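If I may wish for something, please walk me through the protein I am sending here so I can picture the backbone:
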Amino acid sequence: MEDQDQMTGSTVQAGFERTGSIVKEVADKARETVASYREGGFGQVSDDALEYARRQPATALLIATGVGLLVGLILRRGRE
């Protein structure tokens, strides 16, 4: 039983390490993207959004729908 606990512990540790490296990669990529948007301004953000919508139209439509619903809910709660 102790060997199994050790194996489980090392597997969990490896999973945490892998997750940590993935989170670091995502955070670094997000930091780079934000920095490039600061330099490029609204025009670059607009161009990137348009390019994404052309590459992934269904996903872009779902995101826009979700954002619209969220904004609608927030505005509705503000009136109550």
